[in-house]
Amino acid sequence: MNILLGSSEIQPFSKTGGLADMVAALGKYLGEAGVHVGMVTPLYRGLLEQYEGIQRTERTIDVSLGARIERARIYEFQPSENFTIYFVEHVHFFQRSGIYGEHSHDYADNAERFLFLTRVLLKLTFELSWKPDLVHIHDWPVAMFPAMLRQALAEGTVTEPPKTLCTIHNLAYQGLFPASQVSLANLDASYFTPAGMEFYEKMNFLKAGIVYADYVSTVSPAYAAEILTPEFGCGLEGVLAERKDELSGILNGVDYAEWNTTKNKFLNFSYNIDRIAGKAKEKKQLQKDLGLPVEPKVPLFGMISRLVEQKGVSLLIEALQQSLNHSMQFVLLGSGDPELEGMMQDLQERFPDRVKVKIGYDVGLSHRIEAACDFYMMPSRFEPCGLNQLYSLRYGTIPIVHAAGGLRDSVIDEAESTEKATGVKFHDFTSAAVLEGIYRGMAIYKKPASLRSYRRRAMEADFSWERTAQAYIELYRKILSE
Ligand code: ADP
Ligand code: GLC
């Protein structure tokens, strides 16, 4: 089976969130399962300097962007057998310091940048030395692919098309652009209608993906159901409902080769379920390094996140203002909305001995926080899958989550099964419910036997990518057989 993936991010080369982790692992584990995999992604600034393995090729690709022709050069990198990454170089579009924007502002030419990427993906589909059976696109940046493919077929410029799968990682980001930019897509006027990619007079990339792909998927079964409702559908629930027979969810996995507590270059100590002492040492070291009082017996809560409305940050701050009057510590690593960053910093000023806020992006520190904490907070309003709760489980850090999307699918609460509980789930999206979740965490912490059994079950939970990759292979087979 030959699969070509398209994504604007891939870890470790480029990352703003879980999308990057997911597609990197998907490529790797499909390859390990014997699938021939390619991935098309931009060559962002600094990659050539950082990764010697990325090789320049003689392949250039010219594509139309409105009335202009723009040229890409292809670079290649082979992270593992069966898996090749095709990096798309375009100095003006991709040699920038951000992926989608800088200083909380999107680049003004994002429609052009990602239409260009998608056109290159289309050309490569038909020009590679191997023939993709299916092109699997991820999120809005490449979601115009099925529409472009369809038009190319109608024009007769290509034959024997691959099937297409459009995976939605987050419906809140749709790639919405003014109608004045429609001509950049070089699509027939018939695509820009309410039945196609038009969304209230704007051009909507993700909607085009949903309408024109052979199949649509999301990153958890619960989110696949939620997005059919007005509460979570972000205005596209009607369009999705029309595709509900070709819509399903597959829960992401964890790449345990990267996210583990025994062979991890970012951690100072190694630990596992049977040798848990290293976890307490990580806690002590983190408290020391961050300047928190070194208190082995005070429960440490943590969070690593993009600071955006989706993640429930304001509710968490409200809840913490109450709970921090009790004995606990909280550490946050994140960046995003300047207002939420400021609110977090205010909390730190108010509780200097109990709260540490690190604004920024730091992969090493994210592993250390996962390892050091006793509890991990994830009060997301919605969460298509969420990766940090899965990482937390493996690190023996009990997740406290809002029961939404992938959080609902991956954490087991005591109310569901006392013998299987791995974390704390709350159902209302209110600060009172978050507070209640924190208090339930504190109660677990007070009973060492209970804490030990939660940790054991959490660390034993298995979300390995082998299984997720198999689920995708089955889905590809199903799509290919139709
Ligand atoms: P989303 O993709 O919506 O941001 P996920 O839970 O799927 O949420 O994935 C987030 C990923 O980004 C995780 O790997 C997390 O560790 C990482 N991450 C988020 N913020 C930071 C940060 N400030 N520093 C390091 N890693 C971060
Ligand atoms: C998105 C979602 C997140 C998911 C990730 C990877 O960024 O917000 O929930 O885990 O994609 O699929």
Fraction of residues in β-strands: 15-25%
By helix and strand content, what is the structural category? alpha/beta
Give a short account of the largest sheet. 9 strands, mixed
Count the E strands.
Answer: 20
Small-molecule components bound: adenosine-5'-diphosphate, alpha-D-glucopyranose
**Apparent shape:** globular
CATH topology of the largest domain: Rossmann fold
Distance between the termini: 15 Å
**How many structural domains does the protein architecture include?**
2
The helix tally amounts to 17
Give me the Rg, rounded.
Answer: 23 Å
CATH superfamily of the largest domain: Glycogen Phosphorylase B
Order the strands across the largest sheet as they lie in space: 3-4-5-2-1-8-9-13-14
Could you explain the architecture of this structure?
This protein is of the alpha/beta class and 482 residues long. It has two domains: 2-253 and 466-481, Rossmann fold; 277-462, Rossmann fold (3-Layer(aba) Sandwich). Helix content is 37%, strand content 22%. Helix 14 links the parallel strand 19 (398-402) and strand 20 (424-426). Alpha-D-glucopyranose (GLC) binds next to helix 1. Adenosine-5'-diphosphate binds next to helix 1, strand 15, strand 16 and helix 12.
Offer a concise description of the structure:
The mean pLDDT is 97. A hairpin with a 2-residue loop joins strand 4 (68-80) and strand 5.
